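Our preliminary data section would be incomplete without showing what the modeling component actually yields. Below, a chain of 1014 amino acids is followed by its predicted structure, encoded as C-alpha cells that our downstream tools consume directly.
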Amino acid sequence: MAAVVVSRRDQSLENALNDFRAVLTQDQRHDLDAVRHVPDTHAVLIFTAELDAKRRTMKGHSIASRLYSVLQCVRDFSAVVDTFVSSKPEIAALVWGSIKLTMMVAVNFLSYFEVLTQLFMDLGRISPQFDQYQVLFPDSRGVQTALCDFHAAVVRCCQHVILAIRRPWHNQLFNSLWKSLEQEFCPDMEEIKNQRDRVDRELELARTQAALRSQQLQLDEQAEAGTFRGTMRWISGQTNDGVKGLREQLSRQRAREQKKQLLDALSTHDYVSPHRQNCKKRHSDTVHWFFQTQEFERWMSGDSQTLWCSGKIGSGKTVLTSGVVDHIFTERYDPRKPVTFFYPRFNEQDSLRSETILRSIARQAIESASIVDDTLPLLALLSRNNLATNALMELITKAVEAVDRLYIIIDGIDECEPAERRDLLKSLASLVAQNQGVRLFLATRETVSSEIRRAFDSYEQVSMGCSSGQCDISTYVTSTINALVDSEDLVVTDPSLVDDIKEALIKHADGMFLWAAFQLAEICSKANDEEIRNAIKSENLPKDLTEVFNRALSRVISSGKGDVALKLLPWITAAARPMSLDELQESAMIEIGQLFSMPERKINGICRISSWFQGLVDVDEETKTVSFAHISIRLFFLGDLKEDLKRFKIDADEADHYIGEICLTYLFFSDFQTTLAKRTRNGPAIQPMDLAWRAVGDNWTLPFGLGPLDQRGRRPKSANKAVAVKMDINETLVSFVRADRDNALGKFQASHPFIMYASSNCFFHTRAFSSSETKTWSLFNHIIQHGHELVTLPWKPNSDDDLDFLAMMDWACNVVHAPVLGFIIARDAITARDKGKMLPRPDLAEFLETVDLWVPKDTSNGTIELVWHISNGGYGAALGVLLDLVDSELRRSIQMLSLFVSIILGQAKLVKQLLPPVYNGGGGLGVDQGFTFAALIGDVQVTEVFLDAWSTKKGYEYTLEQAVYAAAERGRIRVLGLFLERLELSADCRREAQVIAMDREHQEAYDVLARGKM
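Predicted structure:
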C-alpha cells in the first residue's frame, strides 16, 4: 500500500522523464544513462564552468553562469527526492541529467544557447530554493508532491527545448529569436510559474501544520499531567501510536531546524553570486596564461602553499580569480580537494569584515568535507559567541583534516579596512602554517605588499603586469572590437580604421581592462571616422582612470542627466547593499520630513540608469541591482573632483546619515500607518479544550458530561451520538489558524519595493544619529522604545520583549552603534536576569574581591556587568564610544574595571588600548596592580603588553619585581621566560623568585629562574 502512495507523489515526474527520454537520440539517451549519481555540492559550479570552457572558441564573455539558479534548484531537489519520495533511486539522477543534457545539446547552437540561458535565468528567479523547503520537505506529502510536479514542468520544458533545436527550420527561429522565444516557451513558463505558486501554498500550509502539531503535542502532554489525565487517556487511547509518531516526527524536524539554524548562524553570506557575476565579465581565451606559469603549477602540484596575484587597480585581478576557481573545477577537480572562495565587495559592507570572510570559508569547508554533523558542538559555540575566532580556526582545521587538500581563494582583501585586513591575514597565515593541506590564493593590489610579506614566511607571486599578463589586454580588445563591429555598435566607413583602433587601445591601456572598456564605449559614440581618428590619437587618449571618469561625468552633464545623477549617487555610494532598480526608483526622490508617499515623484525610465551614467554604473542582469562598475569609480566620487565637477563629490558619512533619515521618513508615511492599522487584527484565541473537542468530539461516543454545551449550558443529544472514526488532525489544526499577516505584508511590500530595504537596513544608517544633527531623531527613538510594524530589529530578542537589552547591547557593541549604546545607558535598566547572563555570580564575586578598590560604590545600575560584557567580547571600539558617553568620574571607573576584566579574559588588544589613557589619567597604581595580576594569571600576551608599557613609561623597579614574584608563585614558566628574555633581572629579584617558586613546589619555574632562560 505504501508503494502506491509513494508512486503517486512522483508519478508526474516519472512520466515527464520518460517523455523526455523518448525524444532523445540514441547517443543522447546513452549520455543521459551515464548520469547515475546525484551530483555533489560543487556540481553546479563545475558544470557552468565546463559549459563556458566549451564556448572558449566562441566570441564574447561567459554566459553559462546565468544558469546557476535553476541548476542549483534542480541539484538540491535531486539530492533529497530519492531519500524521501521516490522508490526508484535513478529518478534523482535523471532529474539532474535531463537539464544537464539539455544545456550540453544547446551549447552547440551559439545564438540559441545565449537566448536559452536568458530563458533559464528568468526561470531561476522563480525556482524554489532549498533553504525554503529543506526542513519541511521530509514530513510533508503536499510539499513533496508539489516539488515533484514543479520539476516535472521543468523537465517538460527541457523536452520542448530539445525538440525546438532539432527542427529543420530552426535557422528561421534564430532570425527573430526574442519574439520566437516568447511565443515558443510562453506555455512552459506559465506552467512552471503555476507550479511554483502551488509549491508556495503547500509550504505555507506545511509551516502552519508543523506549528500546530507542536501545539497539539504540548496539549497532549499537558492533558496527561492534568487532573483529567484518566479521561484524556481514555479518549486518546486509540491514538497513542499516532501521538508517539507525532512526537518522533517533531523531534526529527526540530533536529533539522537546529542544524539549519546553526549553519545559518555560522554564515548566510551569498558567496556564489559575486563569482557568477565575475565569470560573466570574463572573455573567452583570457586568463589562461596564468595557469601556465611555474608559480601556479608549484602552487597546484608542488609544496607552495600560498600564491599571491598582484596588480594595479583595474587590471583584471577579480576576473582572473574567477578563472582560477573555474580552472580547478574543470581541469583539476577532486572531491577530496574541495574549493572554497570569497569575493569582498566594496558595495556590501558586511563582506569587508574579516569575520564574515572566515565564517563563509568555514561553512563552505565543512559542507564540502561532509563533516557538518561532527562539528555541531563547535557550531553551537560560534552561535553563542560572534567573535570566537579560535573556534572558527578549529572548524576550518577540522575540514582540512577530513580531506586531502582545501583550496581557499580570496580576492580583493585590499578593499577591507586595514584593521580587518590585518586580522584576516593573521588568521590565514596561521591556517597555512598549521595545516600542510591548505592551498591559499590571494589577489590584491600591490599596495598591500608589505602586509603580505609580514604575514607569510614564504609565498609565490605573479604580477598582472608581467609580459604574459599583458597579452590578455590584446585578446580582450581584439575580441570586443570584433563583436562590436558584428553587432554594428561600432560602425566605420574605412575598414582599416578597425585595426588602428585595436593598435591604439592595446598600446595605451597599460594593462587596465577598465580603461580599455571605457575607451571602447566612447569610440562607439563617435559620429564618423574623423571623430574616431581624433579620439585614438595619443594626445587625446586619457592618461589614467581619473581622466577617464572625468570625461564620463562630463558627458553625464552634457546629456542633461546631471540632476538625476546627483539624486542617485548617495544611494549607489553608501547603501548597505546594492539596491534594485525598483528600490532606487521609489527612494531617490523622497525628501526628509515628507509626510506621505508621492508616486508622481518616482524617477521614470530608471532602467536606463547605466546609459545616464555613461557606463559608470552597472545593472546586474539577474538581480536588477545597481552598483558602480568598479571600486575605482566609487573612490573617484569620494575623492577630490575638478572644480566644474565638485558638486558630484560624495561624503560617505553624510550620504549614510541622509539615507538613514530617508528610511525613517519613509517608514512613518501616514498612508502606510493607515494601511497597517487596517490589517492589524488579532485572531481568535485557541482554547485547549475546544481544540481537544474538535479533534475527537466528532469521532467517538463520549461519556455523559464530556460533550460540548450549547449557549444555554445544555448538552445537545447529538453530543453523545457515535459517528465513524475519521479523525484528520491536520485539518482540525488548520481550522484554528488565523489569517496570515506575513502574506498581507508581502503583498504590501510588492507595491512598495523600498520597504524591504528601509525596514531591514534603517539601523545600519543610524550609527551617527544625534539629537542635535538628526531631523528624524524622535522617529528613531520611537522605533527603539516602541518598535514598528515594518521594521526588522537588527538584534534578535531572546523573548517577546523587543527591548531585550542584552541582545540589543550585543548588536550595538558589535557594530559600534553609539545612539543605541547611549539609549541603553540612559535607560539605566539592565535587568537582574540580563546581569546574570552577562556575568555569572561566582565570577562576579571573585572579580569584586580582586578589584574592590576600583569598583564604583553604586553598582546596582549594572556598570560592572556592562563593562565585563563589553570587555569579554573584545569590543574596543564600543568601549571607546561608551567612555565618550559618560562623565569623567564614571569614565575613570569604567577604564579601570575594563582593564582588569580584559586581564582576566586575556583580551590583549583591549589592554593595549586602555593602558595609555589609564597611565595618562594618573592610574599608575591600578596599572601596577594590573601588571602583577596579568603575571599571576599567566597570560603571556597580556603580560607583554604591560611590560611594553612599563618600559615606555619607565615604571618603578618594585612594580616589575612584584610581577615576577606573582609569576613565580603560580609557576607561570612562560611568563618567567618572557621576563628573562626581555630584561636583566637583578640577582636579588631572581633569588627571591626562586625561593617563592620552591616554597610553592614549582620545580620547573625554579629551574627556569636558575638557568636564566626557558
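Residues 2-227 form one domain. Residues 1-7, 679-741 have pLDDT under 50 and may be disordered. Preliminary results of this kind motivate Aim 1 of the renewal.
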